Amino acid sequence: MVKHIVLFQLKEGMDPQEKRLVMDTFRTGILALPSVMPFIQHVEVEFNINPQEKYDIALYSEFATFEDMKAYAVHPDHLAVAGLLKPHVANRACTDYETK
Predict the structure, then answer these.
(1) Which of 7, 30, 43, 74 has a CA that sits 20 to 30 A from residue 24's CA?
(2) What pLDDT sits at residue 100?
């Protein structure tokens, strides 16, 4: 199993209502992806509750294989959702690892 974890820090100075709308839109879009990409075994999108940390959004997903994860990364529906968030992202951190 491959686990894919991505953290997003949104740009400073965003209006709080706009920030929440961007975050909610991203979450809704990502959570809809398993219906068009059944190889996504599990996905979560959650928002940081710790104001001492700089990242705003955590994306956690699971795939059977690294090839499935790579297919997700380039899938047009995923790229469309990611494109909605991208203009608002200041920093991104990602890790992918395999478990047995």
Answers:
(1) 74
(2) 82
- Compute the mean pLDDT over every residue in the chain, rounded to the nearest whole number: 97
| Secondary element (H or E) of residue 64 | none
CA–CA separation, 10 vs 32, rounded Å?
A: 22
Domains held by the chain: number: 1
Tell me whether residue 81 is exposed, middle or buried, using C-beta atoms within 10 angstroms of its C-beta: 0 to 12, 13 to 18, 19 or more.
buried
Residue 14 lies in a domain: yes
- Return the beta strands (E) in 1-100 as ranges: 2-10, 40-47, 57-63, 89-98
CATH assignment of the domain containing 36:
3.30.70.100
Q: HSE on the CB side for 98, CA within 13 Å?
A: 7
- Neighbouring C-beta atoms of residue 41, cutoff 10 Å: 14
